[in-house]
Amino acid sequence: MLLPPEIRTRGVPLTEADEEDIRRRVAQLDRYYDRIMSCRVALDAPAAHHQRGGPYTLRIELRVPGAVLVVDRTQEEELKHAIQAGFDAARRRLEDYARRQRGTEKVHEERATAQVARLFPHEGYGFLATPDGREIYFHENSVLPPGFKHLREGMKVRFTEGLGQEGPQASTVDAFEGAL
Q1: 116 shares its domain with 97
Q2: Sequence-ordered alpha helix ranges (H) in 35-174
Q3: pLDDT tens digits, residue range 110-163?
Q4: In 3-state terms, what secondary structure has residue 70?
Q5: Is the peptide bond before 131 cis (omega within 30 degrees of 0)?
Q6: In the 8-state DSSP scheme, what is residue 115?
Q7: Collapsed DSSP state (helix, strand, coil) of residue 48
Q8: Which residues pair with 159 in a beta bridge?
Q9: Which of 24, 29, 55, 96 is the most exposed place for a label (fewest CB within 10 A)?
């Protein structure tokens, strides 16, 4: 990366050690894709976080040739965990982008995991909450047996993510037992 990262905070007292940790993690991203042109890191805490701290929200924007890769809405109660989770997600995005650029994208990746966040049974759809804080739409027709009617909010699922008409959409949703 040519320039140092731009780091902005709102409602978060950032120590020198925390800032150095962010700069170190940004520098490490070059290992996964060495053509990063710029990086912006924004760290927020809600105004009403009082004495406890989080939840912290970390947004990372990486400008690379032909794209802007964004990690957003990573929420954690501990500042260090928010930084770690955000940069882990950024690393994965860079690795995926680098594979696409090389033409070596994995064909059979392991399906992502999530929890059923909201269900609208009468309308036949719902939303999944991913570990990185995103919500993904799914339709009842994408749920594998035993089917949509057996899903409950909070249930763990595996899914394949695709692009629908209005953004990310889950297909091949499958309930399973196990930790996220």
Answers
A1: no
A2: 79-102
A3: 788 999 999 999 999 999 999 999 999 999 999 988 889 999 999 999 998 888
A4: strand
A5: no
A6: E
A7: coil
A8: 112
A9: 24
DSSP conformational letter for 78: S
Q: Does a cis peptide bond (omega within 30 degrees of 0) precede residue 55?
A: yes
Mapping DSSP to helix (H, G, I), strand (E, B) and coil, where does residue 11 land? coil
Q: Which residues fall within 8 angstroms of residue 61, CB to CB, at 6 or more apart?
A: 38, 39, 40, 68, 69, 70
**68: CATH:** 3.30.160.100
131 and 77 in a common domain: no
How many residues make up the chain in this entry? 180
130 and 98: one domain?
no
Q: How far apart are CA 151 and CA 141, in angstroms?
A: 13
Rg (the chain; Cα; Å) = 18
What pTM does this model have? 0.55
